[in-house]
Design goal:
Layout lengths: L1 H27 L7 E6 L1 H9 L10 H15 L7 E4 L4 E6 L4 H20 L15 H17 L5 H12 L26 H6 L5 H7 L2 H17 L6 H8 L1 E4 L4 E4 L2 H22 L1 H18 L8 H12 L6 H25 L10 H4 L2 H8 L3 H4 L6 H5 L10 H12 L18 H7 L17 H8 L11 H5 L6 H12 L2 H8 L2 H6 L4 E5 L4 E6 L2 H12 L7 E8 L4 E6 L8 H15 L3 E9 L2 H10 L6 E9 L4 E5 L2 H7 L16
Parallel strand pairs: 1-3, 9-10
Antiparallel strand pairs: 2-3, 4-5, 6-7, 8-9, 10-11, 11-12
């Protein structure tokens, strides 16, 4: 143990400078991260932390051991390496594996600083903690671990019952209303019963004879019941856990009936629901958050040379493994989208200035603009782009009022050199210290990077016409040179920070996954085909790709289920509705969830859903013709009463209520690709 502590201390000592300077660099780039506490852990501790979701202590449960074993085997068999883990807390806590190389540690540290910035500034992360409260999730989770552990050790409580209850709750952990701020009480929203028509008739001057002839009591009773039922079904409640907390019961096998939940059950349900809300923001922003961290990590490590010359190849391997993972990779998708947003904002800024040059209009833009000239004019000043110990005089020659230069730091370097002393820092290792934010945005301007050289030329005429529509000073500049001198180099980064504040993955993809992005990055959609029994590419069309991605990230990529009625059919049964979006439920899993849900309701439970039914004859014809058969969609209600399942046809009016209406989630195009 002593040797392990000495090794950890040695590694920590060697990382003090990278941690300090990465924090300074992040702030120089305009990031505003939470303070970060870094901890050195060994290989086994890292796997434990990953299993615990980034925290050192969680409540006792078999799921953590299963996750730990999976992570250990993933690393052991070369299917993935644990580089870092950071949690959303203020201050944030990041854990570095002591066996990683220095290049990997630097990559992790820069990545973590960007994550901490995202945690601190994205509004979805701010929905959990009350305004003005400091976020201490580690303490919250530790309290929960202690409390649940005490329940399991209580001789008056059966440990197996505690574990069974936790299993039931975890089946529904994502069934919360993640778009609302966390509310400890979490009570069901108040519903107003519809007004009884009798009350309105009483206020009207209608004779009793006419009333009896037109409005029979039987008809009025039926109308009141129908409207009351419809009111309940029209106001589904997404926070299923909160509904169960207030209305749920347990089935007492000895008594053979539903009984009130025990205090320990209500307490555990409250705690697990609170944890679900805490982790919701991370699940809702996976693409944005990982892409944001990958973007700034790459800029700091590669573009700003935070990775030393002898570390760069190791870092390049690190980055390629992260971004090259197969399947839908949130790191790559997110990073590509952030880079596209940056360049699109910069392009808009440049086009705006060029359209104000005399003689340049949306119609002749691509003919009149010399894009090679524009590229040269946008290139950063060589003194800004090539900062090193040999070019300090070039920076000084820019003058004492140049906003791109950190004059105080520059003066300290120049003074030390004139006195024959060592400069206060290594200028070749940290050249960015001599620049301000204005200097950094020019130094890293996206449109002059080799991979973006054709980006300005690709601007569409429709975008140019939109820019020019309300442009009154379209003759502002006499030359292109004069126009580009006024370009705001910070437009891209400013736009990125603006988007970071308010979006989640669904809104992010919906707003910024454009036709241009899908085409240039070669995204495509694929589906499982019943005709061939395997997956195949179905479309490269922008609309299909966007629909597919939105579907994958809505509600964390899981089915959306809500409470429609807590007294279904006036028998105390729970009625849930699967908000169908073109994707069928896995019925085996759905039945398993209903069995668990029964333990939390104590009475029969029902689930409304929609299934796709295929005619065998149509399916055979489709196979022969190599096309997809057209299914018939039918509403079903699955009921579980503690002993067995029943499946009933769902009335058409209920089927319509759970079917997607204003958004078409059908991502299967008319023509399939081979």
């Amino acid at each position: 143990m002593r040797d392990d502590r000495i090794d950890a201390q040695r590694v920590a000592k060697g990382l003090e400078e990278p941690v300090r300077e990465a924090g300074h660099l992040a702030r120089k780039l305009g990031l505003e991260p939470y303070p970060v506490n870094y901890w050195i852990v060994d290989y086994d501790e890292m796997n434990q932390l990953i299993a615990y979701g980034g925290f050192q202590q969680r409540y006792p449960h078999w799921r953590w051991g299963m996750t730990y074993d999976r992570q250990r085997k993933t690393d052991q068999f070369g299917m993935g390496k644990a580089f870092e883990i950071v949690n959303n807390d203020n201050p944030s806590h990041a854990f570095l594996q002591e066996s990683n190389s220095l290049a990997d540690q630097k990559a992790v540290i820069t990545h973590v600083e960007a994550h901490a910035d995202f945690f601190a500034n994205n509004e979805w992360f701010g929905m959990f903690a009350k305004e003005g409260d400091s976020l201490d999730a580690a303490a919250m989770l530790e309290r929960h671990a202690t409390a649940i552990g005490n329940y399991m050790d209580d001789p008056e409580i059966d440990r197996g019952e505690v574990e069974k209850f936790i299993d039931a709750v975890l089946c529904l952990e994502d069934n919360i209303d993640q778009h609302r701020p966390y509310d400890e009480a979490g009570g069901p929203r108040e519903k107003q019963d519809p007004e009884d028509l009798r009350d309105r008739l009483d206020d009207m001057n209608i004779s009793n004879e006419v009333r009896r002839q037109v409005f029979s009591e039987e008809w009025l009773d039926a109308l009141a019941e129908a409207e009351a039922a419809e009111a309940k079904l029209d106001d589904p409640q997404k926070d299923v856990l909160a509904y169960l907390r207030h209305h749920g019961m347990t089935f007492d096998e000895e008594e053979g009936k539903a009984a009130e939940m025990e205090p320990w059950q209500k307490d555990i349900l409250d705690m697990l629901r609170e944890e679900s809300y805490y982790f919701a923001a991370q699940k809702m922003t996976k693409v944005m958050n990982e892409g944001w961290a990958a973007y700034w990590e790459s800029l700091m490590m590669a573009d700003e040379h935070f990775a030393g010359t002898d570390e760069f190849l190791t870092y390049a391997d690190h980055q390629s493994r992260v971004l090259g993972s197969p399947g839908l990779n949130p790191y790559k998708l997110g990073k590509d989208l952030w880079e596209y947003i940056e360049s699109a904002a910069n392009r808009r800024e440049v086009a705006d200035k060029l359209l104000r040059v005399k003689g340049i209009t949306p119609r002749n833009f691509h003919d009149e603009v010399d894009f090679e000239q524009v590229q040269e004019l946008l290139a950063p000043d060589p003194a800004i782009d090539g900062v090193n110990s040999d070019t300090v005089d070039d920076l000084a020659a820019l003058g004492p009022d140049d906003p791109r230069v950190d004059h105080e730091t520059l003066d300290s370097v120049v003074s030390a050199r004139e006195a024959g002393e060592e400069p206060p820092f290594d200028v070749d290792a940290y050249p960015w210290k001599l620049l301000t934010y204005e200097g950094m945005v020019e130094r890293h301007y996206s449109l002059i990077k080799p991979q973006n050289r054709g980006f300005l030329r690709r601007v569409r005429r429709s975008e140019l016409e939109q820019l020019a529509r309300y442009m009154f000073d379209d003759q502002l500049y006499d030359s292109v040179e004069e126009a580009l001198a006024d370009v705001d180099y910070a437009a891209g980064w400013d736009r990125m920070r603006e988007i970071r504040e308010s979006h989640n993955d669904v809104t992010f993809l919906d707003a910024f996954l454009t036709h241009e992005f899908v085409t240039e990055n070669h995204y495509f959609a694929y589906e499982f085909t019943r005709a061939s029994g395997d997956f195949r590419v179905t479309s490269t069309e922008y609309e299909d790709v966007k629909k597919k991605l939105l579907l994958m990230f809505t509600n964390f990529g899981k089915p959306t289920v809500a409470v429609y009625d807590g007294n279904y059919d006036n028998r105390g049964e729970l009625l849930l509705g699967h908000q169908y979006n073109g994707i069928m439920l896995d019925h085996k899993q759905a039945k398993g969830v209903l069995e668990r849900l029964y333990d939390l309701w104590g009475r029969p439970v029902n689930l409304m859903t929609i299934v796709k039914e295929y005619d065998e004859h149509d399916l055979e014809i489709a196979r022969r013709r190599n096309r997809e058969p057209e299914p018939v969609e039918a509403g079903k209600r699955i009921r579980y009463d503690g002993d067995g399942f029943e499946v009933h046809d769902l009335p058409s009016e209920l089927t319509e209520r759970i079917a997607a209406s204003d958004i078409d989630y059908d991502t299967k195009p008319d023509e399939w690709l081979a």
